[in-house]
Amino acid sequence: MTELPSVRGAEVGRRIGVGLMYGLWKPRVLGAWRVPANGPVILAVNHSHNIDGPMVMGVAPRPTHFLIKKEAFIGPLDPFLLGIGQVKVDRDTTDRTAITRALGILENGGVLGIFPEGTRGEGDFASLRAGLAYFAVRGGAPIVPVAVLGSTEKRGRLIKGLPPLRSRVDVVFGEPFDAGDGSGRRTRKALDEATGRIQKQLAAHLENARRLTRR
Fold first, then answer.
1. Contact 144, 3 (CB under 8 A)
2. Which domains does the chain have, with CATH numbers?
3. What angle do CA 154, 124, 158 make, to 5 degrees?
4. pTM recorded for the entire structure
5. What are the pLDDT digits (tens) for 13-54?
6. Residue 154 buriedness (CB in 10 A; 0-12 / 13-18 / 19+)
7. Contact 43/35 with Cβ under 8 angstroms?
8. CA distance 110 to 89
9. SS3 of residue 112 by DSSP
């Protein structure tokens, strides 16, 4: 039996994240009240900065378990990330253990964080992997789109891939929505259709978030 990530660990991670993020940057959180207070939820986060995961983990209203590529679990980060309830994923194969853990989180009414683009890039939700649709339909979980919008200024950056220190970072939570068509089908066609619906919703949320924050 696969052991599920610790909810208590994720809560510890949330407290560490909020302290770290508010210490190094100036988060402005909009719409966090839209995240359902209980039951399974998937946070679908755009991915353009290395801090996107820790930022959302820190400011989300509930403890969140992110699916994180196994390459991030190096040295002391391996026991630390596992200890704060995060899920290691091998992106080069069908990682059954990660899938089981992710579905277990949703079955237990928890919050699963996913970067649907699969890797850090433009952060515009242009390229979505089918995994998000699979977890949403199979886990019966609504998706809450999350846009993390940081400064694109290059001045003041200590590390490439991070916003300048003490710069404002906006985290905008959108309205929850269901990815499935209500039939509960999990065929390849149904998941492809769900992925298309998800992409439209996430792109619309990002556009609204940019308009709202003037980013």
1. no
2. 7-213 (3.40.1130.10)
3. 20
4. 0.91
5. 999 999 999 999 999 999 999 999 999 999 999 877 788 889
6. exposed
7. yes
8. 18
9. strand
